[in-house]
Design brief:
alpha+beta; Chorismate synthase, AroC fold; 5-stranded antiparallel β-sheet; 25% helix; globular
Length: 360
């Protein structure tokens, strides 16, 4: 099946289904000699681990990474880095009733229409369980980026109709991991948490947005025309389960402005790149990084599985009432934050390596 490889130089191929024996991946193109802190990669996996967040699913997985190749005493060899994570708390019987039924809002019908067969157990490969491989690979990419002085921070900026109304410059992103909702502003995080708990008690779900800020990326990253940096970031974000929207810098708000209002005003340029007063471009001009912080947001829809009876359709095209079973997140945002960071790291590591081949 195509569509399982991401990246040009720094590449990830992922494999596995939600209720199969394991999920995992192979990272190719990581330079040799990188000293990896494998415990830190495990920390990033733990942040998206089911059962680790009280606002998430009741499915509990240890999610311990097993490393199979490409490393010698924690140092990359320049060869493919293979890894796997075993599924141990899959409860496939929860999905027996869905073998011949298609759930509303899910990929059930579209996958069967494409392949003529699907894994009904938790969505199979269309499940967010697949994103675990991205977080492992992103953890490797983050350490490569860190050596180059690049920092990536993602955090929840909206849950339902509750919006983080704090300037990103004023945020202490170290606090992102303190609150279960993954919002670095304590007051907003408390309100978001209450809202998620209230909606979960009603058997319903919520969507929202995740913001991401990249500091230290040098100017010049990104390729002209089809591989623009923000285009690749958009593809990366929109490949995440439940992602429905992406904007960089001013994004959709720019549509209501005039050019005289939207243009960034340059205030200086040096080895670090161009500095502006407003960074409305989100750190990318012409598809290439300009040395400013890269800032973007991704919108996620509410989880499609709600703990209420709802109407689906069977193979014969007849409407059927579905009683929700299984263990599901009432809001994907808290567990999606490390996925957004991981995909950002994969894009940036790839483009940083590509940039090194662009000029003498």
């Amino acid at each position: 099946m195509a569509g399982n490889v991401f990246g040009t130089i720094f590449r990830l191929i992922s494999y596995g289904e939600s209720h199969g024996p394991a999920v995992g991946g192979v990272v190719d193109g990581c330079p040799a000699g990188l000293h990896l802190d494998l415990d830190q990669v495990q920390v990033e996996v733990d942040r998206r681990r089911p059962g680790a967040n009280p606002l998430g699913t009741a499915r509990t997985e240890a999610d311990r990474i097993e490393w199979h190749s490409g490393l010698l005493d924690g140092v990359t060899l320049g060869t493919p880095i293979a890894f796997s994570v075993r599924n141990k708390d899959a409860r496939s019987s929860d999905y027996d009733a869905l073998k011949d039924v298609f759930r509303p809002g899910h990929a059930d019908l579209s996958w069967e229409q494409k392949f003529g067969i699907r894994d009904h157990r938790g969505g199979g490969r269309s499940s967010a369980r697949e994103t675990l491989a991205r977080v492992v690979a992103g953890g490797i990419a983050r350490q490569f980026l860190s050596n180059a002085g690049v920092r990536v921070d993602a955090f929840v900026t909206q849950v339902g109709d509750l919006r983080l109304d704090v300037d990103w410059d004023a945020l202490d992103t170290e606090r992102t991991w303190v609150d279960s909702v993954r919002c670095p502003d304590p007051a907003t995080a408390e309100r978001m948490t209450r809202l998620i708990e209230e909606v979960r008690a009603l058997g319903d779900t919520l969507g929202g947005t995740i913001g991401c800020r990249v500091m230290g990326i040098p100017p010049g990253c990104g390729e002209p025309v089809f591989d623009k940096l923000h285009a690749d970031l958009a593809k990366a974000m929109m490949s995440i389960n439940a992602a429905k929207g992406f904007q960089v810098g001013n994004g959709f708000a720019a549509a209501a402005l005039r050019g005289s209002q939207n243009n960034d005003a340059f205030v200086g340029q040096g080895k670090g790149g161009t500095r502006t007063r407003t960074n409305r471009s989100g750190g990318v001009l012409g598809g290439i990084s300009n040395g400013e912080a890269i800032e973007f947001e991704t919108a996620f829809k509410p989880v499609s599985t709600v703990m209420r009876d709802r109407e689906g359709v069977d193979r014969g095209g007849d409407a059927v009432m579905l009683k929700a079973k299984g263990r599901h997140d009432p809001c994907v945002l808290p567990r999606a934050v490390p996925i957004v960071e991981a995909m950002t790291c994969l894009v940036l590591a790839d483009h940083l390596l590509r940039q090194r081949t662009s000029k003498a």
